[in-house]
Amino acid sequence: MMTNPTIERVSEGILYRNPMPHVYSKQAYFPSVIQLDNGELLASFCIGQAFEAEDLHTCLARSKDQGETWNFEGRLYPGTPDRVTSEAARLSHGKDGEVVAFVIRHDRSRTGQGLANPENLGFVEVELLLFRSRDGGASWDAPEQIDPPLVGPSFEMTSAIVPLRDGSWLLPTSTWRGWDGYCPNGMKMVALESDDQGKTWPSYQDVMVDDQNQIIYWESKIVELADGRLLAAAWAYNEHEARDLPNQYVVSDGRGKPFSSPKSTGLYGQTLNVAQLDDGRLLTVYRRMDEPGLWANISHLEGGEWINEEQIALWGNRITNLTSSSEDMVGNFTVLKFGAPSICRLQDGSWYISFWAVEDGVGNIRFIKLQIG
């Protein structure tokens, strides 16, 4: 472990907060931030009355000063007036300046129920959608349906689309049981594959799979490394033993090449996100479970082994009761107070971290800007 810190906090603040929490409930969750070619930052996040509310919908905000202040721009799209749905989104870059929003839309016809079935950890029915913008998120085309090449039957929102340098796209996700518990392929991490900029998704690759169907890989991410390899990391939960495992990682020599067997990162956390630094090291931001709060970790790969160097607390390390670790995972979901960090590399070389956090009873979107040496 290195003793001299290389992570410097440049600034921090609020990306979005309900301006009148004493009048109405507007809770914000699950941010995603990208920088546009013109230098502006575009953010998506969900706003609703509660963490799993039926009215949880994707909204947008824009910053023209490197993320220090933000202008709220409203809903991504009008929604589904003929039926009750909620959704979550992640933003990424498409070809020739296109902005792509990957959206999972949830069927909320089960009035009074959350997203997950407490009886069997099943999930509501979902639709996988793509929205495209050619003007930096000011307007959006009609949604395009993604037809997955395997039966989930439900799928987890884990990541934005990952454009690879060869022009193909990967979509990291995890299969999820249906509301009735049906899950023909087991709960596993996969990467959907597209060779035509998301128009079709005819194939997929297994990324992390437990042959015993005991370990679930959630909040998975994939990074294309500078040398062409693919690195995937995920929060691992042993459902049979009802306990979290250290975050796991696998490595592939490139798209279509098999991933290695899962190994421990040595980090005990959830909802992690990973990016590669200019010098080849890795930045991981995650909700730590052995200590309170959101943390940033610096590591590197050495001969395929994950080597941790240093980590610092970013937020909440002096706050208690931010998470729960009971055997009731659906119940644990309902009491979370922060998480789902987004990592965005800015044009000036800094790193923009956004995440949701409940403060004074209000779900906010916070940001922290880092310089990493």
TrEMBL record:
It comes from the Bacteria. Gene3D superfamilies: 2.120.10.10. SUPFAM superfamilies: Sialidases. This is Exo-alpha-sialidase. It comes from Paenibacillus eucommiae. The lineage of its organism: Bacteria, Bacillati, Bacillota, Bacilli, Bacillales.
